[in-house]
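Bench log, entry 3. Co-assembly request; chain sequences pasted below exactly as received.
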Amino acid sequence: MEYVIAFVVGGLVCVVGQLMMDVGRLTPAHVMSTLVVAGVVLDFVGVYDKFIDFAGAGATVPITSFGHSLYHGAIGEAEKHGLIGVVTGIFEVTSPGISAAIAFGFLASLVFKPKG
Amino acid sequence: MDSKKQMSRVNRQTWHFSQDVRLQASAVAVGPKEGEGPLAALFDKIHEDMYAGQQTWEDAERQLMEDAVTTVLRKAGITDQDVDAILAGDLLNQNITTNFAAEKLAIPLLGMYGACSTSMLTLSNAAALVNAGYANKVIAACSSHNATAERQYRYPTEYGGQKPPTAQWTVTGAGAGLVGIGGSGPRITYATIGKVVDMGIKDPFDMGSAMAPAAVSTLQAHFRDTGRSPQTYDLIVTGDLASVGYPIVKELMRQDGYNMEPMYNDCGLMVFRPDQDVFAGASGCASSAVVTYSHIMDQLQKGLLQKALVCATGALLSPVSYQQGNSIPCIAHAVALEGGA
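Structure output for the full assembly:
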């Protein structure tokens, strides 16, 4: 049942993104940024953690969870180090994901040539 | 002299070529997907991959243009020394494909930009130069490449952005036509140059709707100026309106009393089969060029067509104008081709 919920909820987040592109006529970059900011806002109002408890990977895999991570990192470090922590905290929690994206992107570019 | 001027200028938008100006030869080079399409048998050169043996897609597009021009020279049995000028254009910044290709070809160049209307922009001007006696033989050429156009106007293909069904597939290819006085090949009789029409459409993934009114404007100007009707022609094609823009043109023309059945078609619907995953259909400079310089030329030479009108449509947006929220200005240029058997 856990899997089913994760599958359905994650899919619904993607449906929202698809509607933003097809109906709202937003560009892919706008859709991505909007969903990230939505994750931040949902975490700010205290909803996102409950959302993760409910849907598991359905809430952590979509891009909205990146906003959730950004918010958590910024607030956590801000409590310890003040304003400067807002900046360092963002990088602390999100750096594994971003580093992995850069590293694997680089490796893929060595092996593959785009076909068009 | 004055009478000759009168004979050439029909009206503000329409030129009549009073001399025996002919499309003496034509050639087409394309990429792999076009080579699987319904017109494949008529294409002179089909490259098996998108790189056309080059390192980058931009280099590949140059190769396509060079292939088209060298092939047209070979088919006409002449050398580059026999050609007085090449009128050419493409879709990339500063017409860069054309500039590099013309450097290699060593033919005097007039670079022209009309977005996807470049095929008929160059052909009409080539005919005018020859008709007026400024040149004996002129080559009109243009090119587009799917991956370079995506990078130029939308997203690099590696980005993997989604496209809506109204989007079109830029043709990878180049076409070249040799224009001269006399000889064989269809006569170039009229050209109608377009006015820019902007209906306020801003979506670069819906070029068909944006360009349709420009095609209507030029077609109606052509019929008004020449006293002809759609029924004068066995075939009328627009350049790259595809399945979205094609019915709009038909309907707008019908509302103004022009019956476009059954001779009207769109090059954007002729290059690919519907099952080739090309969204609404083909687009790009090469869309009208590869159809005109292969299929239409062939049909005119075989006598299967007597009179054809090619109305190439162009969306004159730039990436910056679109990002700043401007609408898409559009244009269409038409050229009439006749006989040739």
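The two ends of chain B are 32 Å apart (CA to CA). The first helix of chain B runs from residue 2 to 8.
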